[in-house]
């Protein structure tokens, strides 16, 4: 029974803290390991604390809590030495009192990080650099700011989120890492709405000028088949007259067909010399009708008629 009580008891002690640079160990700034006195090791061994040893650091004056590992037990009694970035997170000054308590943390599965500057994302392979740097860390706590040194430059990174708990162990574990936008990242500015509206209005005003004129059929200058110069041009205003001439021509052809059935020709075909064989009396009949229907017009030049004239035989 006494063995069980000793096994489940906890280690808790208060120490004055100083940065690791005081004992000429500046390389410890690249991790979260602390230096404790030898008496702490004796106490931890008697309690049979499981390895790796992890601790919770608490600054009751500022209400700050973080977690860390231990590297050596060589500090003077009553003192511990911390990385300076850890003292900044805890708002501790040289010689302040901090409470140290052993802790057991679950292995981390997911960590979300946020660099302070976008310069960290400009390095050749930030994830590989981060993986190498985190080998010096034992655990991560949500809300902390860790320091990653690379190429003689220090990069500060916030721990935004950890899973499955707010503090996790990263010793011998596969952990998914995600990045949040850096603190100094600025989204590209969008153009103002007023500028867009003015641009659309100017484009709408330019559209009528860019429109192409509509196609108007049967416009332009006419060409005669006999080569004579044309004195008239077809215009859109002449469409009614053209329709009137077509209707009159159809009436004339109907009258000619009814008076002389023998002179009917198949539609859609040309018969050479058909105008020559037409009787003169039919021409005289059609003329008065056209003259009665049409108003008196000015005399015009005789129109060219294709395939008219005398016939010649090859026999002579």
From TrEMBL:
Domain Ubiquitin fusion degradation protein UFD1 N-terminal subdomain: 11-105, 107-182
Biased composition range(s): Polar residues: 247-266
Composition bias type Basic and acidic residues, residue spans: 200-210
Record carries keyword Manganese: no
Keyword Protease on entry: no
GO cellular component, one term: VCP-NPL4-UFD1 AAA ATPase complex
InterPro entries: Ufd1-like, Ufd1-like_Nn, UFD1_N1, UFD1_N2
This protein's UniProt keywords: Ubl conjugation pathway
Single Gene Ontology MF annotation: polyubiquitin modification-dependent protein binding
UniProt superkingdom: Eukaryota
Region feature Disordered, mapped onto this chain: 181-211, 246-316
GO biological process: ERAD pathway; ubiquitin-dependent protein catabolic process
Family listed: Belongs to the UFD1 family.
Name used for this protein in its record: Ubiquitin fusion degradaton protein
